[in-house]
TrEMBL record, chain A:
It comes from the Bacteria. It comes from Flavobacterium panici. This is MoaD/ThiS family protein. It holds the Pfam family ThiS. InterPro entries: Beta-grasp_dom_sf, Mopterin_synth/thiamin_S_b, ThiS/MoaD-like.
UniProtKB/TrEMBL annotation, chain B:
The lineage of its organism: Bacteria, Pseudomonadati, Bacteroidota, Flavobacteriia, Flavobacteriales. One of its GO terms (molecular function) is ATP binding. Pfam families: Rhodanese, ThiF. It catalyses: [molybdopterin-synthase sulfur-carrier protein]-C-terminal Gly-Gly + ATP + H(+) = [molybdopterin-synthase sulfur-carrier protein]-C-terminal Gly-Gly-AMP + diphosphate. Homodimer. Forms a stable heterotetrameric complex of 2 MoeB and 2 MoaD during adenylation of MoaD. Residues 267-355 form the Rhodanese domain. This is Molybdopterin-synthase adenylyltransferase. It comes from Flavobacterium panici. NCBIfam families: PRK05690.1. Keywords: ATP-binding, Nucleotide-binding, Nucleotidyltransferase, Transferase. The gene is moeB. Belongs to the HesA/MoeB/ThiF family. Its EC number is 2.7.7.80. Catalyzes the adenylation by ATP of the carboxyl group of the C-terminal glycine of sulfur carrier protein MoaD.
Length: 79, 356
């Protein structure tokens, strides 16, 4: 079970601030992002991705572990 | 002495003392933006005794600002923000020197302004200025205290602190289209809290106490009080030299035009209106010669456009259209203008036109 946190405009798309996801086989970060994009249609929304409180490259070659927390962080613009 | 009386309660903190107060009095801080974040940051920096405060903003106070920009009085509506800030600070703490710049930050003035200060605070409300501040901070080697809001959430970080990671390391994709307060909505408390976090980072840097939020972004949600910190590394994706800064910011200027001044061209066959918003964005605008290409895909679909045609680019509020117009100019498009204020400005005018 991994946890995914959503912020800002990304959370508006997902209509939730976090969700838990179980997976049976290996799941790469890239595949997860691809699946989420298909599910929520992020389209032109830009965001950075963190795994366990650390921003990583979206193209990172990383296989998710069951206790991982992934976060999708878009830039904010208000002030 | 009146100064030590004024600051006594903070000077008795062992972390500040006489030394710290002296450091504050010698510090020079430039705040970009006198909106919601600035309204929280400025009085606290001034009250604490920061010696010199510069403030850059070309806006005048509007009635719709007052619910969150709490330093302004109702009677000041219509007046210059930076002049009101100067007045407010002179009453709050006459020991502070205030430099008011009633101008827009641009590639032309950023570097010469930043050079005169120790710390640059980003209290702006749009993304393209954040990249400009970041890049000018890199050229002048100044730390940038970033704060930003989306509805009930805020982000804070300090970039380029002692050569640390920058805004571009966190958000490399410059062509994003995050919403500002006007588009997304905001309450005063969220900008107040985030502005206070920024002021705190400024004081910590000046005093050399605590841990600066460098290489970390703090995300705060005021609805559930959840607070997270995320670490990020320095990437080599950076604009460093003065030359590349000039190349990027001072080369081709995008000309902005008011929609009301081109009304007689909306039925002209030789003119194209280019909507760079996403396909689903409302309100829909349908002019006779109009095409929709989302900003993100503009470069890929550039073949659809004629380099010699007169093209007016528009988006929701006039920010993305400038990026789009710039992109077209880079591709040798000759007659490109961006419609100032975007659809938000166009829709009212179009309504009136239809009535007539």
């Amino acid at each position: 079970m991994i946890e995914i946190k959503y912020f800002g405009a990304v959370a508006e798309k997902t209509k939730c601030e976090f969700e838990k996801l179980s997976f049976s086989e290996e799941l790469s970060l890239q595949k997860l992002l691809q699946d989420l994009n298909e599910k929520y249609q992020f389209e032109s929304l830009s965001f950075s991705v963190a795994v366990n409180q650390k921003i990583v490259s979206k193209a990172a070659d990383y296989n998710l572990q069951t206790s991982d927390i992934v976060a999708l962080l878009p830039p904010f613009a208000g002030g | 002495m009146s100064a030590s009386n004024r600051y006594n309660r903070q000077m008795i903190l062992p972390e500040i003392g006489e030394d710290g107060q002296y450091k504050l009095s010698k510090a020079k801080v430039l705040v970009i933006g006198a909106g919601g974040l600035g309204a929280a940051i400025l009085p606290y920096l001034a009250a604490a005794g920061v010696g010199e405060i510069g403030i850059v903003d070309d806006d005048v106070i509007e009635i719709s600002n007052l619910h969150r920009q709490v330093i302004y009085k109702s009677s000041a509506v219509g007046k210059s923000k930076v002049e009101e800030v100067k007045l407010m600070i002179s009453e709050l703490n006459p020991l502070v020197k205030v430099n008011a710049f009633a101008e827009k930050l641009s590639g032309k003035n950023a570097i010469s302004l930043f050079e005169k200060y120790d710390i640059i605070v980003d209290a702006t409300d749009n993304i393209s200025i954040k990249y400009l501040i970041n890049d000018a901070c890199l050229v002048t080697n100044k730390p940038m205290v970033y704060g930003s809001i989306f509805r009930f959430q805020g982000q804070v970080s300090v970039f380029n602190y002692q050569n640390g990671p920058t805004y571009r390391c966190l958000y490399p994709d410059e062509n994003n289209n995050a919403l500002n307060c006007e588009d997304a909505g905001v309450i005063g408390i969220s900008v107040g809290i985030i502005g206070m976090f920024q002021a705190n980072e400024v004081l910590k840097m000046i005093l050399g106490i605590g841990e600066v939020l460098s290489g970390k972004i703090l995300v705060y949600n005021i609805l559930n009080n959840e607070q997270q910190k995320y670490d990020f590394d320095k990437s080599n994706f950076q604009l460093i030299s003065r030359e590349s800064f000039e190349e990027k910011y001072n080369k081709s200027e995008v000309e902005e035009i008011k929609f009301e001044s081109i009304l007689d061209e909306i039925n002209n066959d030789s003119v194209l209106f280019l909507d760079v918003r996403n396909a689903h964005e409302l309100p829909k605008i349908s002019l006779k010669n109009q095409i929709q290409i989302t900003l993100l895909y503009l470069e890929n679909e550039i073949e659809k456009l004629d380099k010699n045609q007169k093209i007016y680019v528009f988006c929701q509020s006039g920010i993305r259209s400038k990026i789009g117009a710039e992109l077209l100019q880079k591709h040798q498009f000759k007659k490109i203008k961006s419609i100032a204020g975007g659809v938000l400005a166009m829709k009212d005018i179009l309504k009136e036109e239809i009535k007539i």
